[in-house]
Amino acid sequence: MSLFQLYKNEDLSVVVSELLIATADSTDPLVDGSVNEVLAALRERLGMDVVFVGEMVNGQRVFRFVDRTPDAPALQAGSANPVEETFCQRIVDGRLPQLIQDVAALPAGTDLPSSPIRVGAHLSTPIVLKDGRTFGTLCCFSQAPSPRLQQKDLQLLQQCAQLVARKLELAESKGVRDPVPNWSLEPMEPYESKVWRLP
């Protein structure tokens, strides 16, 4: 049983808080695999179809981690598209709010990206590293609107983005500066490496 499975969904913020503390200790073997589980549980708890970590690099938004329902759009880790065609860039720029219950209900003239994927509700927050760099975003979306999304859900997403940022900083401290397209938040070998899985 994993660290995450010991908690109920309503205590997800407690799990994230404890993992944030644990990331300060790079020898903690429970941290790495739990990050993936927390992101998957976040998607389930919020009732969203997809959760992903997107890196903004060289004018592209690259999917670095994706968890989705079986019937959700088939986004793949490692795939990319121009960053200006994304909700992510608009949220980082402040052109769109981080919490959107119903994309179709946004005011006329809102600067929405053209997307081949139907997006009904969208929740996103920047992943900001300690030195002030924006790595990218942590996003959730559903194909249908979700009027039940609240500010507390965005706060939980922001907390998870801090956890991802800590993992990135830990990887960088171990000399991994450019994650490969198929990196994982899990270690290659349990109880050893605390950085992204490398080829």
UniProtKB/TrEMBL annotation:
One protein family per Pfam: GAF
Record-linked InterPro entries: GAF, GAF-like_dom_sf
GAF domain location: 30-178
Domain of life: Bacteria
Name of this protein: Diguanylate cyclase
